[in-house]
Automatic annotation (TrEMBL):
InterPro entries: LipidA_mod_glycosyltrf_83. Keywords: Cell membrane, Glycosyltransferase, Membrane, Transferase, Transmembrane, Transmembrane helix. This is Glycosyltransferase RgtA/B/C/D-like domain-containing protein. Coiled coil: none annotated. It is a multi-pass membrane protein. It is found in: Cell membrane. It comes from the Bacteria.
Length: 548
């Protein structure tokens, strides 16, 4: 009886624990998804591109098949997520929840794919439990899954591509191997359509995987050549785009095959280290800053992190190193090979870590590998310190994650934080827009930071075409083949508060309450302006004044 009970526990408890952890994580992943976090400016810009494509078949600059969104300042935003979310918005209409749900689902499926790959190829299912605990308690995976920064989709496709590659490696059926190998190459190629840093990362990763696969005899040279060829074929339009933007420095829209190629007025060199002076010194400082952000648990960007939890819990890093360098003999061959693939994916980003300025989004290719290796490390630690109850051992990161979610992310018990209280709000903007439409049809509304704020007003208004968008901006005409930048002083009834001297009788001004002594100081002293209402905008109290 005791032996049968022990076998039952060993066989079924790991899967039960994994299911419980995934269900809880999945619940938190979609809980209040349409409200928390608030809208970050990059996300609202992307939403406007998608709304334009859904309603008019073009992006905001009038391109029908853009290979990249030029976006509002010509800074560029990737295209892949729009291909995924546009059918959903077409079917069900736009909402913040529907816009974000594919991101959450993709992240969840990636975590699920990693866990299943480990569970079904490992003799000891406890490794899958440890990896599950690590993945579902990694703060960055949770935070980045709940809002859409286009760059953060790339690690998802890379990891899905590597899991597919691993699946191809362990299957003996030639048909299944080739199918999974093709899936792997497609996913890896698509990841390049998401993030410019992938253009630096992917060549190192692909070459390293190719060499490793041949040396370890996972695949034949023929199989790997097919794999690389498919990646190159799918990525070719993007390679052409990158060549025209970064080498030819094009300054007007162009085409390649059926793709529309924008130019980018604002390149991303500001995200790279300076190549003037001592490059080695710049690299050293850059890497040191990235390490500091990991150890101290924040990159100081409130949309990405909250101290001291970090991208990955700092106290868990010791397990990460154990997972990297722990004894290979404690794993079966397939699981050891998976760890090797993950290590290659991590170290392939070393050139990127040297030249790309660190924050949790810029270095987003390292968090999935680090989380997986941390799971390996927890498992190895349990093998070495088997006197400690494993339930207590695994409870620590779960409890810490619980505090992170409740106190620092959702802010239960009315606790305010940067995720629930400091970014854009569709609902609050809708209230202001409705008031302007109903009661102040012929008035202007002067607001702070118009170039960074107009996009959220555009989301709550009726969708407009690219030509209508152009007519509502400062410039009345478009230069042929050119990008029209975000409005700097006017957009529809909106005006930037710096031009308030041009206001007419009946016009309104909306000033943040905590900024009254700065932008709003002249209103309280000017007898032509009178306070009319309190309201909220971007989760902050505002005072509304009217000129009479």
């Amino acid at each position: 009886m005791g032996k049968n009970y022990s076998q039952f526990i060993r066989k079924h408890v790991p899967m039960l624990l994994i299911l419980i952890l995934l269900v809880i994580f999945g619940f938190f992943l979609v809980f209040n998804l349409g409200k928390i976090p608030g809208l970050y400016i990059d996300e609202t810009n992307y939403m406007n591109e998608v709304v334009s494509k859904v309603n008019y078949g073009t992006d905001i600059h009038g391109l029908s098949h853009p290979i990249y969104f030029a976006s509002v300042w010509g800074q560029g935003q990737s295209i892949l997520y729009s291909w995924i979310v546009i059918p959903i918005i077409k079917l069900f209409g736009f909402s913040v929840f529907l816009f974000r749900i594919p991101m959450a689902v993709l992240s969840f499926l990636t975590i699920l794919g990693i866990i299943l790959a480990i569970y079904f190829s490992s003799k000891d299912k406890f490794l899958a439990v440890c990896t599950t605990v690590s993945l579902v308690t990694t703060p960055w995976l949770f935070i980045s899954s709940r809002w859409v920064l286009d760059a953060n989709i790339s690690p998802i496709f890379v990891m899905l591509g590597l899991v597919s590659l691993y699946g191809a490696m362990i299957y003996s059926s030639n048909r299944v191997r080739y199918v999974l190998l093709v899936v792997s190459s497609v996913l890896l190629a698509l990841s390049a359509y998401v993030y410019i840093a992938a253009w630096i990362y992917l060549p190192f990763l692909i070459v390293a995987i190719f060499i490793l696969s041949i040396v370890k005899k996972w695949f034949s040279i023929k199989e790997m050549l097919v794999w690389i060829f498919i990646i190159f074929l799918i990525a070719l339009p993007l390679i052409v785009f990158a060549f025209r933007v970064n080498i030819q420095h094009i300054d007007k829209f162009s085409k390649f095959l059926f793709f529309d190629l924008p130019y980018l007025k604002s390149n991303r060199v500001s995200s790279l280290i300076s190549f003037k002076g001592s490059i080695l010194s710049s690299i050293k400082i850059n890497v040191a800053e990235g390490v500091r952000q990991v150890i101290f648990g924040t990159d100081n960007l409130p949309q990405n992190s909250v101290a001291p939890y970090g991208a990955i819990f700092p106290f868990m890093i010791i397990f990460t190193f154990i997972g990297m360098f722990g004894k290979k003999s404690l794993f079966n061959e397939n699981i050891a090979n998976l760890r090797l693939i993950i290590l290659v994916s991590l170290f392939s980003f070393l050139p990127g870590m040297m030249v790309i300025k660190p924050n949790y989004n810029h270095w987003n290719f390292i968090w999935f590998p680090l989380a997986i290796l941390t799971g390996y490390g927890i498992y190895l630690s349990f093998q070495m310190i088997n006197k400690i109850s494993w339930s207590v051992f695994l409870a620590v990161p779960v409890i810490v994650f619980w505090f992170f979610v409740f106190n620092s992310y959702f802010g239960f018990n009315n606790q305010e934080n940067s995720f629930n209280n400091s970014k854009g709000s569709i609902a609050e903007t809708q209230v202001i827009n409705d008031e302007m439409s109903k009661n102040y049809k012929h008035s202007k509304l002067y607001i702070e930071s118009l170039p960074e704020t107009f996009n959220i007003f555009r989301l709550v208004q009726n969708p407009i075409s690219d030509s209508k968008y152009l007519s509502m901006q400062d410039k009345a005409t478009r230069v042929s083949g050119g990008i029209v930048p975000a409005p700097s002083s006017s957009y529809g009834y909106l005006r930037d508060v710096t031009n308030i001297s041009k206001a007419s009788d009946g016009d309104l001004a909306m000033i943040y309450e905590d900024d009254l002594n700065n932008q709003g100081a002249f209103l309280s002293k000017n007898h032509d302006w009178h306070f009319v209402a309190d309201s909220y905008f971007n989760h902050r109290k505002v005072k509304i004044f009217q000129k009479e």
